[in-house]
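Continuing the batch. This is chain 6 of the set; chains 1 through 5 are on the previous pages. Same settings as before, nothing changed between runs. Recording input and output for traceability.
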Amino acid sequence: MDAVKGVKSLIGSLTEIGLMLIALAIVASLLVGANVPFFGGVVGNLIALVKDLGANGLVGLIVLGIIVWLFSKRTVS
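Output for chain 6:
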């Protein structure tokens, strides 16, 4: 069971780092412009995702709810 907890902790930490990098990419794109070398078109990709979810109506809202649930602050036990 300790191995499972270790893997869950590792996955949680990697996910948190990924979300921090996305937030950093958004801020850098807003401050510098869309052509940030390392982060690419993160803002453009997020805008496309929002457009796709909006075009799909109820299904888009359900998917958005699932995404928010997956990335919400939960404790990893």
